[in-house]
Amino acid sequence: MGQILSQLGQLFLQTIPTVIFVFLLYAILSRFLFAPLTAVLQKREDETSGAMARAREESAAADEKARQCEASFQAARQEVYRQREADRRGIVEERETGLKGARERSEALISEAKASLAAEVTKTKKELESACRTLGAEIAETILGEDAGASRGGDRV
Questions:
Q1: Given CA atoms 139, 140, 145, 147 in this order, what sign does their dihedral have?
Q2: How far, in Å, CA of 112 to CA of 104, rounded?
Q3: How far apart are the first and last CA of the chain?
């Protein structure tokens, strides 16, 4: 067993430089390769998550802007509808005013025509009364004149 321990001790002594070399290599690789690589990977992760966060913020901002645009479009549509309604009311009022004026003019013409017709009816009635009196007098004269002439003429015959 002593021989095995001595071989193990020798083997251990021979492996010490390899172990030191491996630890040294690990320290060098850690410092010059793994640390920068880890830093780059961490920076990449931070930038990726930062970009994702910025993308979410920009998406939220774009959604808010879209809502604002939709609200302004809605307000503009409502303003257009209000303007159209005001224009329509103005046109209706103009039409009503025109119709009222036309109605007043037509009523004035009708009143004037009625007055003219009433005057003409009165004039015609007077003319008819006068013509009736004249005709009645002529008829009476003709009838009475013949009767008077017949009674006179009867004396002569």
A1: positive
A2: 12
A3: 211
Q: Rounded to an integer, what distance in angstroms lies between the CA atom of residue 87 and that of residue 93?
A: 10
pLDDT tens digit string along 45-62? Answer: 988 998 899 999 999 999
The one-letter amino acid code at 69 reads C
Q: What is the 3-state secondary structure (H, E, C) of the chain?
A: CHHHHHHHHHHHHHHHHHHHHHHHHHHHHHHHHHHHHHHHHHHHHHHHHHHHHHHHHHHHHHHHHHHHHHHHHHHHHHHHHHHHHHHHHHHHHHHHHHHHHHHHHHHHHHHHHHHHHHHHHHHHHHHHHHHHHHHHHHHHHHHHHHHHHHHHHHHHC
Q: Which two tokens stand for residue 17?
A: 């430089």
Cα R_g (the chain), whole angstroms: 64
Q: What is the pTM of this model?
A: 0.42
- What residues have CB less than 8 Å from 54, skipping those under 6 apart? none
Residue with tokens 């994702």: 52
